[in-house]
Design a protein that fits this description.
Elements (H helix, E strand, L loop, with lengths): L5 E3 L2 E6 L4 E5 L10 H7 L4 E5 L13 H15 L4 E6 L1 H12 L4 E7 L19 H9 L10 H11 L2 H16 L13 E6 L7 H10 L3 E6 L6 H4 L1 H15 L7
Parallel strand pairs: 3-4, 3-5, 5-6, 6-7, 7-8
Antiparallel strand pairs: 1-2, 2-4
Helix pairs in contact: 1-9, 2-3, 4-5
Length: 258
């Protein structure tokens, strides 16, 4: 299903449904298609918003995780969203963490899945020569437990980015910025209820990363999904949506009196 891309000021985004804002932040090679099942399900209950992050459109000095977090902050301010449930996958999770640490006032809850910010295996030291389609195909397949999820369309999309010299430089800049920006010592400052949803077979941000996030973020809960890689919302959408829905409902229950 195609969504209308809305424009407001310098921002492009999708906004579907009504209710509390659920803002979705995609990863380094992410796109709107990553969140299709999530948008379709949650637009029945929430106002689902997907800002199209300018990963490859910022000047090189601002092509950092911090630069993306500033962009998200300006977007939420401009649109005046409040009581936001902020969800990020991979690099998007990292951006969500930085935003929540710097500007917690609009954030009601935080949802991380396959997030960077502590440790991740990126493209590795063997970044491909441009034009190496098979390498890109293998790397894209590694994102998932089931390599069949890496459709030709998805591989072509990643290949077209890495095969463009300027885009490839920006991807490397963002990946290096994510590795340098370790949030381990700051995570204890996050007060928002936080849901961690992780694939048990994630090879990019392995399960030990999720356990570390769980240990360091005070009010966090961790759910693992079997036979699932780095992008649970794409690979096992029904299970992911059920876990998230239960968590969001819990945020609106009246606090029990002990």
């Amino acid at each position: 299903m195609e969504y209308e891309i809305k424009k407001y000021d310098k921002f492009s985004y999708v906004e579907e449904g009504e209710g509390e804002p659920l803002v979705l932040l995609h990863g380094l090679f992410g796109a709107l298609s990553n969140f299709h099942s999530l948008v379709e399900y949650f637009k029945q209950y929430n106002k689902v918003i997907v800002p199209l992050l300018p990963l490859l459109d910022m000047d090189i000095l601002n092509t950092t995780v911090g630069g993306l977090a500033k962009y998200v902050h300006k977007f939420l301010e401009k649109k005046d969203y409040n009581g936001v449930h902020l969800l990020g996958n991979s690099l998007g999770g990292h951006v969500a963490l930085i935003h929540t640490l710097k500007h917690p006032e609009r954030i009601k809850s935080l949802i991380l899945t396959g997030s960077s910010g502590l440790f991740e295996n990126g493209m590795g030291d063997s970044y491909p020569k441009r034009g190496d389609y098979e390498y890109i195909k293998k790397k894209t397949e590694l994102t998932f437990y089931d390599p069949a999820i890496a459709t030709k369309e998805l591989v072509d999309e990643v290949y077209s980015i890495t095969n463009n010299r300027i885009k490839a430089i920006k991807i490397i800049a963002l990946a290096k910025s994510a590795i340098r920006n370790n949030l381990g010592e700051e995570l204890n400052q996050i007060q928002q209820p936080t849901l961690l949803v992780w694939g048990n077979n994630d090879t990019i941000t392995p399960p030990f990363v999720a356990k570390e996030f769980n240990k360091l973020i005070p009010n966090s809960e961790l759910q693992f999904i079997d036979k699932c890689g780095h992008a649970p919302m794409m690979e096992v959408p029904e299970e992911f949506n059920a876990i998230l829905h239960k968590f969001l409902k819990k945020q609106n229950e009246p606090a029990s009196i002990a």
